[in-house]
Amino acid sequence: MASYQFNVVGYIQSPYKQKFAIPRQPGLIPEATGYLVLEDDYSDDTILRGIDCFSHLWLLFVFHETADKGWSPMVRPPRLGGNTRKGVFATRATFRPNPIGLSVVKLEGVERSNGKLMLKLSGIDLLDGTPVVDIKPYLPYSDALPHAAGGFADAAPQTAMTVSFSDAASTFCRQQSQYPDLQVFIEKVLKQDPRPSYKKQREGEQSYGMTLYNYNIKWTVNGEHNHVTEIHQLPE
Ligand code: SAH
User: Fold this and answer.
1) Which of 59, 137, 204, 213 is a good FRET partner for 53, with 20 to 30 A between their CA atoms?
2) How far does residue 60's CA lie from ligand 1's centre (Å)?
3) Residue 157 in domain
4) Is residue 1 part of a domain?
């Protein structure tokens, strides 16, 4: 069997520090901003010439967090409640023969900082530290197919979940200035109900925690309601 080796062109800096709570696809939470920091071998200014004319980019990346877990021909997409099996090539599951991911992201700008060449991105669905193997411009005339059939994932997932914040949590969001959209971002992450399917069936109040950017966020879930109780900043 032929095999090919690829070089990592850059690594993602993402607000998502763990797989839990990452949306299923890019674009679902536009407030999720991050960077693709290019490796030094791909940091010549000329390498991005013309890219600023594109609003969106395709990223091809490695599912590095799950890459060593192997794959199987059938998977249970979370979209189907985790009970129905589909062929791996009929899904966007991370456990694939080659652990390669594909995401379309919004290009917010190109920056250079401390000698590093970086693409500022939004709407990402990528884990912090994700290795990227290629970047290609999104071409609407060919890539946008509004009438294509979306199979078992024909529309963006919807939930009935609501979200509220304690006074302390909303004051925290207002008082930090680094991420003006922090509260909306947290709200959208929780509205998608990141809990694993089996926990969604449970009765009574459940407590959860996650890290977004450098913030630790704690919340409770009761029925279809999320309540953010505390947020605190983690050391850099
Ligand atoms: N848009 C991509 C990802 C779809 S799977 C594609 O279609 O190929 C979505 C899941 O990928 C997310 O829920 C997240 O948990 C997972 N993910 C994101 N970055 C990852 C990484 N570096 N390693 C493993 N899983 C990752």
Assistant:
1) 213
2) 11
3) no
4) no
Q: How far is the CA of 1 from the centre of ligand 1 (A)?
A: 26
At 191-214, the pLDDT tens digits run 999 998 888 888 899 999 999 999
**pLDDT digit string, tens, across residues 9-39:** 999 999 999 999 999 999 999 999 999 999 9
Residue 86's domain comprises: 10-151
| 191 located within any domain | yes
Q: For the chain, give me the number of helices (H) and strands (E)?
A: 4, 12
Number of domains in the chain: 2
Indicate yes or no: pTM above 0.85: yes
Does 168 lie in the same domain as 145? no
pLDDT in tens, 109-166: 999 999 999 999 999 999 999 999 999 999 999 999 999 999 999 999 999 999 999 9
222: domain CATH number? 3.30.2310.20
95/66 Cα distance (integer angstroms): 7
What average pLDDT score do residues 90-103 get? 97
Q: If we measure between CA atoms, which residue out of 61, 90, 65, 68 comes closest to residue 77?
A: 90
- What are the C-alpha distances in Å from 27 to residues 57, 69, 139, 147, 151? 12, 27, 16, 18, 19
Residues enclosing ligand 1, CB less than 6 A?
19, 22, 24-26, 63-66, 92, 94, 101-103, 125-127, 130
